[in-house]
Automatic annotation (TrEMBL):
This is Probable magnesium transporter. Keywords: Cell membrane, Endosome, Ion transport, Magnesium, Membrane, Transmembrane, Transmembrane helix, Transport. It comes from Tagetes erecta. InterPro entries: EmrE-like (IPR037185), Mg_trans_NIPA (IPR008521). It is found in: Cell membrane; Early endosome; Membrane. GO terms for cellular component: early endosome; plasma membrane. The chain crosses the membrane at residues 20-37, 58-78, 84-110, 117-137, 157-177, 184-205, 225-242, 249-273, 285-302. Belongs to the NIPA (TC 2.A.7) family. The keyword Cytoplasm does not apply. Its main location: membrane. It is a multi-pass membrane protein. Acts as a Mg(2+) transporter. Can also transport other divalent cations such as Fe(2+), Sr(2+), Ba(2+), Mn(2+) and Co(2+) but to a much less extent than Mg(2+).
Length: 343
């Protein structure tokens, strides 16, 4: 009897969810690789021109940066398609797998040490991702892009959108000019807030294209083009501030904070707009949250132990740029001997 009730509660993954899962895994592979390639391109560009963190765009002339960008675009296209088939609660947390790929490639290409606890962090990410995959809600049945637009214009999501835009405006106008070079949360905050809106727009556009390819033309609806405009605007904003964050701060700092903030805000936006949890009971929701927390734990463990060697933490010395005093600790910012500058 208990076994029968368990089977009733868990009906398995739908075909659309499986398609979304495969696309999300492919996306993580490409995006994880792109972080390392773009990082090397930014470092090369910074040697001969103004760095992105200082407002420069010399990286646009660096071929290696473009290779990383193309790799990221391929990953984002796969991610884009994944949102058309599966709910954001399933797709977004799987971005943690890109951090695992990034850590492994950083160990091989950038010579960054991957400690045994880093391996444990990778394992936790895999366990958490598996938990979410097995308990994720089914994709909502939508017949028209107009239905997605109706969800996006409901009072609850409109309020969320307004709050996000106000927060981004305050960060860009007030906090970034003052603290952008010293506080990683300024750049990452903009990326994550705008990112949560971009995912909702991507999902709307993805559903429109999926229905169009299935024979129900959605290109005649103005809502499809409105979603397209929001996607382009949000992605350009994200890329701009993510480049600044990567060029100003260490990858070990940017990656986990960006993942946590972006994923948390995206899940919140999806729950508000698509009401993903309406068809689930408390047990399923709590299990998904536990899986998400497991991923967060693995992500932080992975990056916190990147400077550990043989059980001890390697604390590189870095200079206090105001007083010229040398301290020991893991620096948040990059410190290149060939390109020192004051904040």
């Amino acid at each position: 009897m208990t076994s029968h009730s368990w089977r009733d509660a868990y009906s398995g993954m739908s075909t659309d969810n499986i398609k979304g899962l495969v696309l999300a895994l492919s996306s993580s592979l490409f995006i994880g690789s792109s972080f390392i390639i773009k990082k090397k391109g930014l470092k090369k560009a910074g040697v001969s021109g103004i760095r992105a963190g200082s407002g420069g765009y010399s990286y646009l002339y660096e071929p290696l940066w473009w290779v990383g960008m193309i790799t990221m675009v391929v990953g984002e296209v796969a991610n884009f398609a994944a949102y058309a088939f599966a709910p954001a609660i399933l797709v977004t947390p799987l971005g943690a797998l890109s951090i695992i790929i990034s850590a492994v490639l950083a160990h091989i290409i950038l010579r960054e040490k991957l400690h045994i606890f880093g391996v444990l962090g990778c394992a936790l990410c895999v366990v958490g991702s598996t938990t979410i995959v097995l308990h994720a809600p089914q994709e909502r049945a939508i017949e028209s892009v107009a239905e997605v637009w109706d969800l996006a214009t409901e009072p609850a999501f409109v309020l969320y959108g307004v709050l996000v835009l106000v927060a981004v405006f305050i960060l860009v106008v007030h906090y970034i000019p003052l603290y952008g070079q010293t506080h990683v949360m300024c750049y990452i905050g903009v990326c994550s807030l705008v990112g949560s809106l971009s995912v909702m727009s991507v999902k709307g556009l993805g559903i429109a294209l999926k229905l169009t390819f299935s024979g129900t033309n959605q290109l005649v609806y103005p809502q499809t083009w409105a979603f397209t405009f929001f996607v382009l605007l949000c992605v350009i904003t994200q890329m701009n501030y993510l480049n600044k964050a990567l060029d100003t701060f260490n990858t070990a700092v940017v990656s986990p904070i960006y993942y946590v903030m972006f994923t948390s805000l995206t899940i919140l936006a999806s729950v508000i707009m698509f009401k993903d949890w309406d068809g689930q009971d408390a047990t399923q929701i709590i299990t998904e949250l536990c899986g998400f927390v497991t991923i967060l734990s693995g992500t932080f463990l992975l990056h916190k132990t990147k400077d550990m060697v043989d059980g001890t933490v390697r604390l590189p010395k870095h200079m206090d740029e105001e007083g010229g005093i040398c301290h020991e600790g893991i620096p948040l910012r990059r410190h290149d001997s060939t390109n020192m500058r004051s904040p």
